């Protein structure tokens, strides 16, 4: 892309998207579905908030879902990026027209001082004043990035003018920040504002935009990562990864003097991939990073937000382009298949938000016209650049990093080749045929995948060829002849992957494919969490462990092919789980049933198995009596519960999220009270011993109390609520927390919830 060409310190370049044509039926189908879906969206509906904000009458009503919240307008940004990518792939004029129309409308909406947004500007004041507001800088990043992408692909002059003026508004705003204001702004998710402003600087050469980008560089975080400190515990993952993309962009834009930022990004990548990542390539639980190497304990229905994966792929791609280190493409290739292709419903084209790692859940997809989640937006981007990462080039030759059937036509290099990939029983067979060659020597670097255990077998025109191995690539340099045919055979084997915090846990893969077992499709109901985000429910018992008969766990793992038996002619494995048969198939293609990627291994009739069953019973009991739960400090969930307050903010202590209020501050939530005896339960911390607080329910004081010092640092406080005598089944109450300690603070941690009073559950 244009920006990339101007970047310093890039050693390996991408091809423009129209040079690569996907011919693989699944990948090209996925692309087509996304394009078809995007073609049905009405630009006027996506623009409505922008017109309203500018004082015009919208031409169509806004879409519902997140487009009717304070994050409105983010979808238009993603849509522009996706439209530019589609246009870059096939140059279909329809998409040029759409971009043209939107850009002209945006130009009309841009205000004198450059402000362009789908919400009034006071939302930015609120962030600066420390009042609750839903991530306007995150939204700004999406919008500005979309406009920049349109300019990069189409050289659109109006887009150039808009982004320059918007950049000026941002620069004006950020230049006025005091240290206190800047700290407050940077404590709220702001996407990759530094990343897109560095792009803007690169395109326009205007120094102010680089200075504005620096305002979003979070030096303290970068310094810790630069020193290889894993400080991720408790950080919001999709807030953090784009910050690092911005850091790396700084290096890419300014060159070697900014090596600090490269090292920061490399260390961050290592920390995330080695200590916070599941077998799919995804990370996080309820959008947050946890403690390093604590992954089994964090498996739930809400792991691996797809936006995080989208951003980790971007980071991996750039790090590869800078360093040429193939480990980045190992991660990229694996994750693109097992987490990104896996995130689309191949019938409807809809994509996922969370990707559950707890066994027994199922994939839940966005709706076409009523969700517009963050991941709906990054999904639009994901599926319109599926050819990314297959081929790269530098002065010496071509890198092939992903084995996906496709055609490459490189006009400048006068090279055209066709890659065909098929599965031949236990072998991934790749055939590369040169349709056009330049009549001079050039090199081919073929990535040796990290899943490969044996040597690759290489044949040139049917004759065995001993390829040279260089830094993890098969390297061949020769004067190629037209119609030369290179065959690469890679033997696939079954592999077990564990998780660091539980030696019993196993996930299975075969060659590049992560496997999952189908666990039926009974009662596949969904529930809503956060702001209108659907998550799968598991109201039935699903066995998430394997019972090994008379064999020790290590022996079972060592001889896995005896127990997971391959079916002939397809990638499917049967496992006999004490009378139950499980069939493992590639996870990316599963979308209609409950699944298990991870299973715990227990020896039949062992004490550990008995203990596990008892623990699960207890957890289920508590879950059954909880009626309304708020994960404290999670912006989406707090907004959905009508968060209000003064002198209040959220932070983390040793990985525990908390909300606090200071001096005479307060915060409140709206919660659903049911018509039976209920308790309000919250977690307090013994470090605050002596601090006092008041809880007010619907204007009436429920209790005034003091934080205690208990045996454990964190302890539960529960207060019974007065019984409602209304006939309604449930009622919304406002629960307000006030600090009574003057200079001190009051804070609640982890989850705030209502539960039914039931003596057995005390
Ligand atoms: Zn997301």
UniProtKB/TrEMBL annotation:
<feature type="domain" description="Non-reducing end beta-L-arabinofuranosidase-like GH127 catalytic">
    <location>
        <begin position="20"/>
        <end position="388"/>
    </location>
</feature>
<dbReference type="Pfam" id="PF20620">
    <property type="entry name" value="DUF6805"/>
</dbReference>
<protein>
    <recommendedName>
        <fullName>Non-reducing end beta-L-arabinofuranosidase</fullName>
    </recommendedName>
</protein>
<dbReference type="InterPro" id="IPR046544">
    <property type="entry name" value="GH146_SB_dom"/>
</dbReference>
<dbReference type="GO" id="GO:0005975">
    <property type="term" value="P:carbohydrate metabolic process"/>
</dbReference>
<dbReference type="InterPro" id="IPR049046">
    <property type="entry name" value="Beta-AFase-like_GH127_middle"/>
</dbReference>
<dbReference type="InterPro" id="IPR008928">
    <property type="entry name" value="6-hairpin_glycosidase_sf"/>
</dbReference>
<dbReference type="Pfam" id="PF07944">
    <property type="entry name" value="Beta-AFase-like_GH127_cat"/>
</dbReference>
<dbReference type="Pfam" id="PF20736">
    <property type="entry name" value="Glyco_hydro127M"/>
</dbReference>
<feature type="domain" description="Non-reducing end beta-L-arabinofuranosidase-like GH127 middle">
    <location>
        <begin position="398"/>
        <end position="492"/>
    </location>
</feature>
<feature type="domain" description="Glycoside hydrolase GH146 substrate-binding">
    <location>
        <begin position="622"/>
        <end position="749"/>
    </location>
</feature>
<dbReference type="InterPro" id="IPR012878">
    <property type="entry name" value="Beta-AFase-like_GH127_cat"/>
</dbReference>
């Amino acid at each position: 892309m244009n920006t990339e060409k101007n970047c310093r310190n890039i050693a390996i370049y991408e091809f423009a998207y129209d040079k690569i044509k996907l011919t693989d039926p699944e990948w090209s189908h996925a692309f087509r579905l996304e394009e078809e879906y995007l073609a049905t969206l009405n630009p006027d509906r996506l623009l409505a908030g922008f017109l309203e904000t500018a004082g015009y009458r919208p031409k169509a009503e806004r879409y519902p879902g997140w487009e009717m919240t304070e994050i409105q307008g983010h979808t238009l940004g993603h849509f522009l990026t996706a439209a530019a990518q589609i246009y870059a792939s096939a140059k279909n004029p329809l998409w040029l027209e759409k971009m043209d129309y939107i850009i002209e409308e945006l130009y009309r909406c841009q205000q004198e001082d450059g402000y362009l947004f789908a919400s009034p500007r006071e939302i930015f004041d609120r962030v600066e004043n420390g009042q609750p507001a839903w991530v306007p800088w995150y939204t700004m990043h999406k919008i500005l990035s979309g406009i920049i992408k349109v300019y990069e692909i189409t050289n659109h002059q109006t887009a150039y003018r808009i982004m320059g003026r918007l950049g000026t508004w941002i620069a004006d705003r950020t230049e006025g920040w005091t240290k206190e204001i800047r700290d407050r702004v940077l404590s709220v998710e702001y996407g990759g504002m530094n990343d897109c402003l560095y792009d803007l600087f690169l395109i326009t050469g205007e120094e102010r935009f680089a200075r504005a980008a620096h305002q979003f560089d979070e030096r303290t975080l970068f310094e810790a990562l630069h020193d290889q400190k894993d400080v991720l515990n408790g950080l919001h993952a999709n807030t953090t990864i784009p910050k690092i993309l911005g850091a790396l962009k700084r290096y890419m834009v300014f060159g070697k003097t900014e090596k600090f930022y490269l090292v920061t990004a490399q260390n961050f990548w290592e920390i995330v991939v080695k200590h916070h990542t599941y077998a799919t390539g995804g990370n996080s639980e309820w959008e947050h990073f946890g403690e390093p190497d604590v992954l089994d304990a964090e498996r739930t229905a809400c792991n691996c937000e797809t936006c995080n994966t989208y951003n980790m792929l971007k980071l991996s791609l750039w790090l590869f382009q800078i360093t040429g280190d193939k480990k980045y493409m190992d991660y990229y290739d694996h994750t693109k298949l097992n987490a990104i292709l896996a995130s689309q419903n191949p019938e409807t084209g809809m994509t996922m938000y969370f990707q559950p790692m707890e066994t027994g859940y199922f994939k839940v997809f966005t709706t076409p016209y009523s969700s517009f989640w963050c991941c709906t937006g990054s999904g639009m981007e994901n599926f319109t650049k599926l050819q990314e990462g297959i081929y790269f080039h530098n002065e010496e030759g071509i890198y092939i990093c992903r084995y996906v059937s496709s055609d490459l036509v490189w006009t400048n290099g006068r090279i055209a080749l066709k890659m065909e990939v098929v599965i031949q029983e236990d072998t991934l067979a790749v055939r590369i045929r040169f349709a056009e060659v330049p009549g001079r020597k050039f090199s081919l670097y073929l990535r040796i995948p990290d899943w490969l255990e044996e040597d690759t077998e290489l044949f040139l025109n049917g004759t065995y060829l001993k390829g040279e191995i260089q830094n993890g690539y098969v390297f061949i340099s020769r004067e190629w002849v037209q119609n030369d045919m290179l065959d690469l055979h890679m033997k696939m084997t079954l592999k077990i992957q564990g998780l660091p915090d539980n030696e019993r846990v196993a996930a299975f893969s075969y060659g590049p494919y992560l496997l999952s077992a189908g666990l039926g499709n009974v009662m596949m109901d969904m529930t809503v969490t956060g702001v209108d985000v659907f998550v799968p429910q598991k109201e039935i018992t699903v066995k998430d462990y394997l019972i090994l008969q008379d064999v020790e766990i290590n022996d079972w793992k060592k001889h896995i092919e005896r127990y997971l038996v391959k079916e002939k002619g397809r990638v499917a494995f049967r496992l006999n789980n004490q009378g139950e048969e499980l069939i493992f198939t590639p996870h990316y293609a599963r979308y209609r049933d409950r699944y298990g990627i991870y299973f715990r291994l227990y020896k039949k009739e062992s004490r550990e198995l008995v203990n596990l069953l008892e623990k699960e019973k207890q957890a289920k009991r508590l879950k059954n009596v909880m009626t309304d739960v708020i994960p404290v400090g999670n912006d989406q969930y707090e907004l959905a519960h009508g968060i209000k307050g003064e002198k209040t903010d959220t932070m983390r202590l040793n990985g525990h999220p908390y909300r606090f209020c200071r001096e005479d501050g307060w915060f409140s939530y709206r919660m659903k009270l049911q018509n039976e005896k209920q308790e309000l339960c919250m977690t307090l911390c013994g470090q605050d011993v002596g601090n006092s607080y008041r809880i007010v329910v619907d204007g009436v004081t429920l209790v005034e109390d003091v934080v205690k010092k208990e045996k454990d640092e964190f302890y539960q406080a529960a207060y019974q609520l007065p019984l409602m005598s209304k006939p309604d089944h449930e009622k919304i109450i406002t629960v307000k927390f006030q600090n009574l300690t003057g200079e001190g603070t009051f804070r609640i941690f982890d989850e705030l919830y209502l539960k039914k009073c039931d003596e057995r559950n005390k």
